[in-house]
Every structure is written in C-alpha cells, then in structure tokens.
Design goal:
The chain is built from 34 helices and 56 strands. By secondary structure, it is of the alpha+beta class.
C-alpha cells in the first residue's frame, strides 16, 4: 500500500511539472515566436554543414569553394535567451571533381586555426517577437567567424507557421519577405518550404571593397550589384511532438546575368544542411550579457586578408613583371600588374612593411605604381614609411602626403601614419593633411589616435608662448609661424579636438586673449572655433574680446563673427546694448551691416531675431552703403539657389582694406552647402601705396611736372595727361628747369621710400566645400620663386639631358606604365556568412623597350624600338572565407598589340648600310583572348572549354620573303547546345593576327651607294649613280637592286630594277630634250621601259608654243611586245584665220585606227571636219574565222532541212517557193507597170548561202559642217513702259529716310538719317541689232565592206545678186542587203519675188535587186488613187472570193494551185499598205 502511495505522488508531481511547462510555453509563445521550437532548460544538438561552389554552369564540370562542418549546441537557459556552442569544426575545400560531377574535398591549410577560432567563444543571442534578433559576441570575436555563426542562427530562426502566409523574417540578410509553402501537416506543419528573393531584404546590398583611388571609373558597385540575381530556397522538417527542427536544407543561388543563358553562366551556390542529433535538459539558467555589446543578426563587413601572410607571392609576381620585357609574353603584363596590386591588398601591415624595401630595390618604378593604386591602409602606411626614410623631405613629398590625405574613408591606422609624418616634419602640407584625415575619420566617437593628435597639437601650440619644444628637429621653424599653423589646422578639425581635449581648447582661448603675440595669431585662435560648439566659457571670452576697445577692429570683428554663428536673443540683446558705446566707426559699420543682412535673411531660424533687431536698430538701420566707400561692411546676396557673402574690413586710418572675404553657399533641398571661401588679410601696404600715389607720390608729382613743362608745345599730350590726373586734384608745382634730372630724382626718392619702409605682409587662404585647403603668405613668395626656379632647371635642363644620354647609351632601356582605369569591387552577404566577392577591373599598360647606341670607331649605330600596349578586363566572382580559404572564378579578356624594330646603321664615305635582323619569334600584331580561371588556395586552373563545335584554325599567308602573316582563331561555338552559356563563358578563346618567321632568313639588309661615274668618249659625260640593294640573307638568300643614274650632259635619268629570283630585270629611262630646229623651239620628254634590254614601253611627249600663234602638243606610246602604238597630236595655228587640228592614231596587231578633227574659223566661215579610218585584216586577226563561217553555214542548213509538222515538206522548200512566188508576181505586175522591169532581180532563186568573208574589213567616215556668216544685220527696237518720262513724273521719291533705332537693352543705337536719290529719265525704247541668217552645210560619208552611206543637207541664205534661200538634202545608200539600198535627193529654192517655195528637183530611185519596198514607193510616186490600186489587185488575181459565181471555180482552183504564192504576195502587199 505504501508503494502505491509513492507511485501516486510521483504521478502527481509529474503532471504538475508538465502543466507548468505547458503554461511556460504559452507564455513564451507570446514573447517570441521561436520559443516553441526550443524549450527552456534544454540543449539541442545539431550537425551543421555549409558549403559553397563557384563554377560556370553549362561548361566543364570544374568548381571550387570552401566547406564548413560543425557540431552546434543550442542551450536555452531562459525564455527567448539562447547560448550557442560550435564544436568539432572542420574546414575543407574542393580538391577535384569525381566522374559523377560531385566535388571531392580536402582539408584546408588553415583548418586547425579555423577550428580553434570557432570553438574559442560561445555566442549568446536573444529573440524578441519574430523579427528582432540580437547577438552578444565576445569583444575579441573576429568578424568573419561571427558571420559564420550568424549564418547558423539564421538557419535556426524558423518560427511556427500556423497557416501558409508571407511574413518578414530576421536573417543574415536582414529583414526578408519570406514565402511559406506547407507540404505536410499533423498537429503542426512538419514539412515546410521557404522561398526568398534576397533583393527584397533590407540588408542585402553591395558593400564597397577596396579599389584603386586613381581609377576613372569607380563607385559603380551599386548598379553592378543589380546584375547578380540572388534567391534562397529552404526545406524544413519539424518534429510533430517537440516542434523542433529535425532537418533543414537551404540552397542559395547567385547568378551573374551578363553572358548567362537560362540560368547557365557564372554562379555561386551556397548550401546549408542541419541535422538534429539529440536534446537533453540542462540546469544552467545563467544568461549574463552586456547590452552595449549587442550586434544585429545581419551580415557585417569582415577584414579580407590573405590566409597565409608571405612575401613570396608579391616578390615573385614583381620579379616576373620586371623580366617580362625580355620575353615573348608581353600580353601577360596587364594581368600580372593586377595580380601584383591584388597581392599587396591582402597583406597586413607587418608583412607589407618588410617587403617594400626589397620591392624598391627590385624596381622602384613598378613598386610606386602598384602602391599608389593599391588603395588599402597598409599600402598608404608603406608609402608614408618609405617617404620618411628619404634624406630630407622635399616639397614633392609634402605634396604626395597631402594628396594621400584626400582619400575617402580613412581609418585609425591612416590617422596614426599621418600623425607620425607630422611628428617627423611639421610642414604646412603635412599638417593640413593630418587635419583633413582626422576630420574625415572623426564620427562623434573619442578614439585613442584622435587623443594623441590633440596632445601633439597642444604640445606644438604651447600656449602661444613662442618657445621651441624640440630644438633637435631636422626641420626648424619659427615659433610664431608654427603657432599660426597649429591654430589654422586645429580649426579644420575643430569638432574632434573639442571633443577629446578640453585642455587644448583652453590653450587656444588663452592665445585669443593675448595681446603680445602677432595679430594674425590672435585672429587665428579666434577663427579656430568656426567649426566648434560655442559654450558659455567661449562666449564670455569672445564677448570680452569684442568689447575691448583697445583691440584692433579686425580682431573684434573675428570675435563678433564667431559669436554670431548661432545667435540667440540674449546674445543679440547684449551686442545691441553695447553697440551704443562703440566708438570705432569701422566696427560699428560692420556690425550694423551684418545685423541688417540678418534682418533681411529668409532663414527660418532668424525669424525671431529679425523682429527684435528691427525694433532695436530702428534709427541705425540706414540704407546700404555703397561698395568700397572706405567703411567696413558685410555684404550678402540671397537667391533661391544659394547666397554670396563678403566681408570687407578697414582699419581706423587705412585707405586700403585690411581683410577681404568672399564666400558662396549653395542651397539644395533646404540645406546649405559651402562651395568655396577665399580670404585675404594684409598689413603694411600703406607706405608703398603712399610713395606711389600719395600727395607727394611719384606719379602725381611726375605727371604734374610733365604737364606744366609741356604747356602749349604739345596740346594733345597735355590732354592725355589731364585725363590721367585732373587739374582740380593736383597741387601746383614749379616747373623745373631740367625736367629729366628732376624725374631722375623722383625715381631715387621712390626707391628710398620703398627700401626703408616696412615690408608688407599678406595672408590668403582658400576653403573648398567646407574644408580649408591651405594658406599662403607674402614671405612664401620668395621661397616659391626659388623652388620654381629649381624645378625649371630640373625638368627643363637636367632631366631631358639625362633622358637623352640614357637613350643613346643602351638599347635595353624600357619604360612601361600600368594604370587601373576602372575598378569596382563589392561583396554581398550569403546565408552561410561567407561573403560573395565580385570585382570588375580594367588595366591599361602601354610601354616600349629600346634605345640607340653609336660607335664612332666603325661609324655604326644600333637602333631598337619595341612598343607594345595591352588592355585587359578582369572579372572576379566567388564565395570565400576571409583569412582562411580563397576561392572564386576569374574571367580575363585581353587585347594586345606589339611590334618591333631592330636595326644597325653603318655609314661610310659614299655608302650607308641598314641591317635588320629577322624576327626569331612570333610577333603578335594584334590579339584578343578570353579565358576562365578557377582560383582556390594555392592553385589556379584554366576552366576547360566546351569540346562540341570547337574551332581551332591557323591560316597563314606569305607577307614577304622570310615572314608570313597568320590568322589564328580558337573558340567554342555552343549555339547547338541548349544548356550552355553565351560566349565568352564557353571556355578559352583567342583571335590573333601574328607575324611569324619562316626561318629561311636571318637578316635583311639595305645598302645605299652614291657615286659619280664617267661615261662616253674619254669619259666626258658625268653620271650620278644611286644604287639601292635589298638583300635577305639566310638559308636561301634573295636580292633586289634598284639603280638610278642621271647623265648631266644628256639630261637623262635611268632607273633599273633587278630581282634575279623572280626573273625581273627592268629599266626605266627618262630623257628631256630641248631642240631649236629651223628657229622653232621644241621641248620633249621620253620614257622608256625595258626588260632585259628589250623595249617594253615607250612614252614620248613633244610640245611647242610660239606666242599663242603656233602651238603643238604630241604624245606617243609604243608597246613593241604587243605590236601596239598610239599617238595623239594637237596643232593650233592662229593668224588671220584660226586652224586647230586634233589627230589620233592607234595601231594594233592587224588593225589600225585613225581619227582627225579639224576646226577652221575666220570672219566669213566656221568649219568643222571629222575624219576617221578603221581597217583590219580580219582573217589574219582571227586565223580560224573560216571555220566559224563554215559552222554558221552548217547551222543555217540544219535549220532549213528541218521538216514542217504534219507535212512532208522541209523548211527549205517553203522558203525557196516563197522567193519563186515573188519573182512570178513581179513578172505579172511588170506587164501593167513597165517601170518595174528595172527592178527585176537577175537572180530568181536564192541559194540561201552566206556571202563570202572579205580579206580586210574597213570603215571610213568623213563629216563636214560649214556655216557661212551673213554680214547683213537687222535692227530691232522694243518700246519701254513709261518711256521718255522722268522719275518725278512717276512719283519716285527724291530722298530715302532711315528712322531712329534705339535699343539700350542690347546697346544698339542708329540715328535717323536721309539719303538723297538722283533724278533719272527712262529711255523711250531699247534698240539692238541681230545678224541675218547665213548658209549652213552638213555632209557625211560612210564606207565599209557591207554598207556605204552618203548624205548631205544644205539650208540658209544663198543670196548672190537677188535675195534667195535654198533647202537641199541628198542621201544614198548601197548594201549587199537589198532592203537597205536607196537614193534620195530633193532641192527647194525661194526667191524674193516668189510667194512660196518651188521644188527645183525631186528624184527618188531605188537600186537594182530591190524587191518589195520599190512597189510601195512606186505607187506613192505615181499618186495612184484607191480605185486604181483595187483594179490592180483584181487584174492580177491577188484576191479570192470577190467575183461572180462563173469565175469562182477558177479562182478557187487558182488559189488551190498557187495558194502559197498568193498568200505570200497578199501578206507583202498588206505590210506595204500599213
């Protein structure tokens, strides 16, 4: 019984405990949504694995990336409070890919260090609600390790999903909109898929990485990050009872869109795998954290350095880059330089500082180029450390340090480096560089390095006591100048100094109150507060300075301006109250003008002060003073775009302003931005100005004396002087007896005044965009002029001489520039906590190698010039682990050009020899290549190309002897594959144009020889000879010679080209002749082209010109090898008549052509005659023409022997019978018309054979045109409108008036003016004469073997005694073809007494053998009417079916017997009728 009682008590306690846990769960669910997943006082153990794979999807299966596996323990000591332990962590990376395409991992080099870093600290974090996750890491937890733990927490942060919905979740990417999809559900959802578009997460953005500060194209990481698509999909399995995660698998994809196709391309895939191991209860309930150390869950930028810090990679790359000039791999220069810069960026300060000296010893030029384009803080430190190692810092070093201070986003290390430089040398540029760096670095947080800067400034200032704190400095400076410099630079970093060092601020205030230091230092101490907050202490001290009547006006104005930075009503009341007691009119004028500008200001913060100022200064707010009226004032102009403000401050007795300031402000979106501010402060100019322009100054005194001396001698000169110095402003002076001597005394007095007066001092400063650039004093001018003189001597005289001697002393000189003109690098967070790094860089590397050497002993000169230029774009993308594992992909797109010239020049008395060695290796005239690289820790592999449709071709063509031009193309055409990316991601590709040597030639030489020869009898002819010999020496030598000879006596020039290998021996002879035969000067030129002394071409030209009365020009050409010659001759004779002839003669083999044109012109006639003659011996020109003639006859016979369809007749029978029918009907018509007997052909039946070919073909033509002028003329008079009237009668005005034009806006003024117009009279008529019609004749004759035609036409005035006109034409043609032979002639005459023209003669005659056309022509000539024609047809029985029935049978029989004859005749007659 007792046992049952114990058992009941145990069950009761268990029920109570479970009930309490259930209540606790309900409470927790109301606090954070993750509480139901992880119960309080329990520990959950998971096996966590995350990996990333970088590769090109669709190409070769080559990937890389890290892998991390850990045992993760999650303890829940309190509600929504978690403690995470990571144990047994292992770090590995992809080694190879197995045949199934799966990665095979190996242990990474830093795996042990990684395991220790992961296990060193636990991570505490809290969850509030569903979106707020706060981490509490240890202070020394590395950022990259913390990011990995962030990825684990992000994978575990999955609240309970009651329904399918979209909600915000807190992840390593920030707050992300997440889509839920439930696949299985029991009591809870047990199988859920989460999907995210990472671009919608609030902390998923590009984080700028280090890039070259000198790049032109940078800071484009924002737009470039949009080219990467990022998505995440997760699948979770939950325990239905415990609700905790049992398994999770997340896949995150990042795809670079350019060149990608359907998801194939450069991508990085990140996976996370969680597997539940066990859970148990814990008794630990402690959760102690420091709230100030909390950090968010989203990704934090890590410091990305190399896993292994060694100098070997940098020195090896630099050594390879130095030795590159002597190799054939110049295209590697751009990628090697980018590799060198990238290697410098991943080194820490302690490693980089050790190797800079070695790098400088190896190549200082390349080292400086790499360091300046590195961009990291470590590189900047290396630069500054190297500068400090120089013996004495020059102004160049100062400028370099100042330039480094302009870089954005400095860190504590850079501030520390700048402080070290300032401690070493306190030059103006270095001090301003330190101030600008501190100003950019300070972010309202007190740091040790800023504190050290303030202590250094306080030490330098030393309360403005003027004591030197370091007597052993290498760069001693004046204590007062140092105090002024410190005060100016403290003003640049005012907020930082005020926040970290109250003692420094007190020291500056003491300087402001002192009166025993230079005024410029006092004002600088006041102006140092322009960027500080004005507290009560500062306000009280500056109010004392403002009210101190003994202080100079510009110091009081400086204090007033600092007080009025942020004025309040009490301050304005105090200033206004004191304004009545101000006795200094300059100060009062400035304060009143400044208050007036405040009243007129439209700024909202000045609204309350405006009304108060207006009431207080009702009587003193006078209208604005004129500019430069001698009173101190504040001027301000406001506009919607901003404002312009100026301060002009005068001293009590000065005529020149002591201080001038101009400031411009730009207003954008209700914010004011300072654009620039320039100010000038000066003292001591008054004595110099008074000596020049004062009452007794040099210019007034000299001008006055000169004017009175001039008197009436030079009135114009006196007027000019009077304008320069008006008489009312001048004192009357006695006119000197010796003007020149008096002027000399005035000059000496001016020099004495300038010598003994104190030197003027001025300070000018400039601020741009709110930052003070620096200042300059007049005392710096002398030093500046000395420095410029030194630089001029160095850059204009010394360096060019050194460069020249270096250039002519060796052929191994080289100079290469390397410039990263584009670089944009950024990182994106991933779910695993590994950063995804992406960069795009463009490198440009031009340069040359070569030089010139000269040896006087053998007069030999060596010349070498090998230029090259490379351009490369480098794209990098990959997920890696900073400080542990390097991984990613690189795409290199390279363009390269190189050429070379190596030559030796040898000079002698009459010979120059140029030797060019043949190239021994390929020269890349132009190449463009692309390759993909897989980069992992310690190795770089080329991504294999697609083998499908791979093109690999080399096409070479001979360039010239010994060299060939080759075109190389290598690429993969993946268009046939659907699952392939676009080019150039298909693999390695290259297109190149190369010049390759064949090995047959070792050297090319060119020899030029100049000598004078003696030719002719007894060597009387002097011949100048110039010979050029080109030779290719080698295994099979080749030579070419070009010789030029000039005979001074014969005035001939001969050129000869000999190339034995190509059987070329050509010569050109040029001769110029000048003869004077029979008193007629003739000039000529002859060009002969020969080959092997056989004439090939002759060109001859002659010309003659005799005072434009007798001229001749002739050009002849002969080609003996083609039996061809041609000539063109033009002749002009001018006396009473003008004669011009143009004759052209062309002779070809068996053919000749001649054409002549003559023009004759005088007072009576104008005549043009054209003659041409062409003849050809056709049978000799075409030897087998008889065969062609015979073949054509056979073709005709073959056609005529063809049978007609559906008959037994041949075509020859029909044609023959048709000809016979024509003869028969002509016989019948002859009975009625006897005239037709003359047209009867002697041949009745044609044999249908072609006529025989003549032995010669000829064509002659002769044309003449003549026009006889008529000396009689006809007068014509045309009446004009308003003829005989004057201009006044037709109301034309006598004057032209121009009105007044006055446009003052554009400065145009034209006064009114009248212009008189002359009177004129219109003539009654317009008279002119026209010559009467003359007589024109035109005739043409054409004769040939087959056709002859002659025609003429005459028309015009044919008056002899009685006026008469004639019109006549003649035409006659003869041809073997009967249809083309005819003769026409007709003449018409008209006399003065006849009313119409009378035909004088009409004759139309057709030659014999004409068959058809004569009938129609005859009918027309006899003018037969239609009835006669019809009777003619009926009588000849040429128509059937038109007579009585009696004769119808005979007609039908006749038609049947001779049907085909009748048909032919009727058709012919019908054609004639048409």
């Amino acid at each position: 019984m007792m046992g049952y009682i114990k058992l009941c008590l145990l069950l009761l306690l268990s029920s109570y405990t479970l009930a309490q846990e259930g209540n606790g769960s309900n409470e927790q669910s109301s606090t954070c949504l993750l509480a139901s997943r992880f119960k309080t006082y329990k520990k959950y153990v998971y096996q966590y694995t995350t990996a990333s794979r970088n590769g090109v999807v669709g190409t070769a299966n080559l990937k890389n990336g890290p892998k991390v596996s850990c045992q993760v323990e999650i303890e829940v000591p309190q509600m929504c409070r978690f403690v995470m332990h990571t144990r047994d962590c292992a770090l590995s990376e992809v080694s190879v890919m197995d045949p199934q395409g799966q990665p095979v991992y190996r242990q990474a080099p830093g795996s042990e260090a990684f395991q220790a870093a992961m296990e060193r600290h636990l991570l505490r974090f809290t969850v509030e609600g569903g979106t707020s996750v706060q981490l509490f890491p240890e202070t020394d937890e590395p950022v990259n390790i913390l990011n990995i733990k962030r990825g684990i927490v992000s994978a575990l942060n999955v609240p309970v999903m009651e329904d399918e919905q979209n909600s915000l979740m807190s992840t390593v990417h920030g707050q992300c909109l997440t889509d839920y999809l439930v696949h299985a559900r029991k009591d809870i959802a047990t199988d859920v898929t989460l999907s995210r578009d990472l671009s919608q997460c609030d902390q998923f953005y590009s984080r700028k990485l280090v890039n070259s500060p000198l790049a032109l194209l940078q800071k484009l990481h924002g737009p470039m990050s949009k080219l990467i698509t990022s998505t995440q999909d997760c699948n979770y399995q939950f325990d239905n009872k415990g609700k905790h995660i049992t398994a999770a698998m997340c896949t995150e994809k990042h795809i670079y869109l350019p060149f990608s196709h359907e998801g194939n391309g450069i991508s990085s895939v990140v996976t996370q795998d969680l597997s539940f191991q066990s859970s148990k209860r814990i008794s630990n309930k402690a959760f102690d954290v420091n709230p100030s150390q909390s950090k968010p869950l989203y990704f934090e930028d890590p410091d990305d350095k190399a896993p292994i810090q060694t100098k070997d990679a940098v020195l090896g790359t630099l050594q390879e880059l130095v030795a590159l000039a002597g190799t054939d791999h110049g295209q590697k220069r751009t990628s090697l330089f980018h590799k060198l810069v990238s290697s410098l960026r991943v080194l820490r300060n302690e490693t980089l500082s050790q190797i800079v000296t070695e790098m400088l010893d190896m190549s200082g030029w390349l080292t400086w180029q790499a360091l300046f384009q590195c961009g990291t803080t470590e590189c900047t430190s290396a630069i500054l450390h190297t500068i400090r190692s120089f013996d004495g810092l020059s102004p160049e070093a100062d400028a370099l340090v100042y330039g480094l201070s302009l870089q954005a986003d400095p860190d504590a290390t850079r501030v520390r480096d700048m402080l070290s430089m300032a401690q070493y040398k306190q030059s103006r540029a270095i001090m301003y560089a330190l101030a600008n760096t501190v100003k950019k670095f300070y972010k309202s947080e007190v740091t040790p390095v800023v504190t050290d800067v303030s202590k250094f400034m306080e030490t330098l200032l030393n309360d403005c006591t003027g004591e030197i704190f370091d007597n052993d400095s290498d760069f001693p400076t004046d204590p007062e100048d140092m105090s002024f410099l410190v005060l100016r630079v403290v003003g640049v970093m005012g907020q930082a100094m005020q926040a970290v060092s109250p003692s420094l601020i007190s020291s500056i205030l003491r300087c402001a109150r002192k009166t025993n230091i230079p005024l410029s230092n006092q004002k600088a101490a006041i102006q140092a507060f322009r960027l500080m907050d004005i507290n009560d202490e500062v306000r009280n001290i500056f109010m004392e300075v403002y009210k101190d009547a003994k202080s100079p006006v510009d110091k009081r104005v400086a204090a007033y301006l600092i007080l009025m930075k942020n004025p309040d009503q009490a301050l304005v009341r105090d200033i206004l109250y004191n304004l009545e007691n101000v006795r200094d009119e300059q100060l009062k004028s400035f304060v009143v003008s400044h208050l007036r500008n405040i009243r007129n200001s439209g700024e909202p913060q000045m609204h309350q002060l405006r009304e108060y100022i207006e009431l207080a200064l009702k009587d003193q707010l006078s209208p604005a003073n004129k500019v430069f009226d001698g009173m101190s004032s504040n001027y301000k102009i406001d506009s919607p775009l901003g404002s312009v403000q100026s301060n002009i401050i005068f001293g009590a007795t000065d005529t020149l302003p002591k201080e001038v300031m101009l400031e411009t402000t730009l207003k954008v979106f209700d914010y004011n931005y300072d654009i620039f501010e320039v100010g000038v402060e000066g003292t001591g100019f008054e004595p110099t100005i008074d000596a020049l322009f004062g009452e007794n100054g040099f210019f007034p005194d000299s001008i006055s004396k000169v004017m009175y001396w001039a008197g009436d001698k030079a009135k114009m000169f006196r007027e000019v002087l009077d304008r320069m110095a008006p008489e009312r402003d001048r004192m009357k002076r006695q006119v000197p007896q010796d003007l020149l001597k008096d002027l000399t005394n005035s000059v000496e007095k001016l020099m004495d005044d300038a010598r003994f007066s104190s030197a003027p001092e001025a300070i000018a400063y400039l601020r741009l965009l709110g930052a003070e650039i620096g200042y300059i004093k007049t005392s710096d001018m002398k030093k500046m002029s000395e420095t410029l003189s030194i630089y001029y001597n160095v850059f204009i005289r010394v360096l060019p001489v050194k460069a020249y001697f270096a250039l002519i002393s060796s052929t191994e000189n080289e100079v290469f520039g390397h410039y990263i003109f584009m670089e944009n690098a950024f990182s994106l967070p991933t779910a695993s906590g590994f950063p995804l790094k992406f960069s795009l860089a463009g490198v440009f590397a031009p340069g040359a190698k070569g030089g010139l050497t000269y040896s006087p002993a053998n007069t030999m000169t060596d010349l070498s010039f090998m230029p090259s230029v490379g351009l490369e774009f480098i794209t990098q993308m990959g997920v890696h682990i900073p400080d542990y594992v390097e991984a990613g992909l690189e795409m290199h797109t390279n363009m390269y050009h190189e050429s070379s010239l190596n030559a030796k020049i040898t000079m002698s008395r009459n010979q120059m020899r140029l030797s060019i060695p043949a190239p021994k290796s390929n020269t890349q005239f132009f190449s463009i290549s692309n390759k993909l690289l897989s980069v992992s820790s310690g190795q770089t592999k080329i991504v294999p190309s697609l083998v499908e449709d791979r093109t690999d071709s080399t096409d070479c063509q001979p360039l010239f002897y010994g060299l060939k031009l080759c075109t190389i193309a290598r690429y993969s055409n993946a268009t046939s594959m659907d699952q392939a990316p676009y080019y150039p991601l298909t693999g390695e590709s290259r297109f190149a144009v190369e010049i390759q040597p064949t090995g047959e030639v070792s050297e090319y030489t060119a020899t030029i020889t100049d000598e004078t020869l003696r030719e002719g009898k007894k060597g009387r002819h002097k011949v100048d000879s110039l010979t050029l010999t080109l030779k290719a020496e080698g295994y099979d030598s080749s030579e070419a010679t070009v010789a030029l000879r000039y005979n001074r006596n014969k005035n001939t020039l001969t050129a000869e080209v000999v190339i034995p290998d190509y059987d070329v021996e050509a010569g050109i002879k040029l001769a110029v002749t000048d003869s004077d035969a029979k008193g007629k000067k003739m000039r000529g030129i002859t060009i002969d082209v020969t080959n092997r002394n056989i004439p090939q071409l002759t060109l001859v030209g002659h010309s003659r010109l005799d005072t434009m009365k007798n001229a001749m020009l002739q050009i002849q050409m002969a080609i003996p090898s083609l039996k061809t010659d041609a000539s063109v001759t033009a002749t002009l004779k001018r006396d009473e008549d003008v004669f011009m002839d143009l004759e052209m003669v062309i002779n070809l083999p068996e053919t000749s052509y001649q054409q002549k044109a003559s023009i004759k012109y005088n007072d009576e006639t104008f005549e043009v005659e054209l003659k041409s003659h062409l003849k050809s011996e056709i049978q000799k020109l075409i030897p087998n023409i008889e065969n062609h003639h015979r073949q054509l006859q056979q073709l005709i016979d073959h056609i005529l022997d063809q049978k007609v369809a559906k008959t037994d007749m041949k075509l020859r029978h029909i044609v023959t019978k048709g000809i016979e029918a024509g003869d028969i009907w002509l016989d019948k018509l002859t009975a009625s018309i006897p005239y037709l007997a003359n047209l009867r052909s002697k041949r009745s039946i044609s044999d249908l054979t072609l006529p025989a070919l003549p032995e010669k073909l000829f064509l002659q033509s002769d044309s003449l045109f003549r026009y006889q002028f008529n000396k009689d003329k006809m007068a014509i008079s045309l009446p004009l409108p308003h003829g005989g009237k004057k201009s006044e009668e037709i109301n034309i005005p006598t004057t032209l008036s121009i009105p007044l034009i006055d446009l003052p806006e554009i400065g145009l003024y034209i006064p009114a003016k009248n212009y008189p117009l002359p009177s004129f009279t219109i003539p009654p008529s317009l008279d002119f004469t026209v010559p009467l019609l003359g007589l024109a004749e035109a005739s043409t004759k054409i004769n040939s073997n087959f056709y002859s035609w002659e025609g003429s036409i005459t028309g015009g005035n044919n008056t002899v005694d009685v006026p008469s006109y004639i019109a006549q034409y003649k035409a006659m043609a003869q041809s073997p073809f009967h249809l083309l032979s005819y003769k026409l002639e007709e003449t018409h005459l008209k006399n003065k007494n006849e009313t119409k023209a009378v035909p004088a003669n009409r004759n139309s005659q057709y030659l014999k053998r004409h068959m058809m056309i004569p009938l129609q022509q005859l009918l027309l000539e006899q003018r037969l009417d239609q009835q006669i024609y019809r009777n003619l047809i009926m009588n000849q029985n040429l128509k059937c079916g038109r007579s009585e029935n009696v004769g119808r049978r005979w007609e039908r029989r006749q038609c049947r017997d001779e049907g085909h004859h009748t048909t032919i005749i009727v058709v012919c007659i019908s054609l004639i009728n048409k």
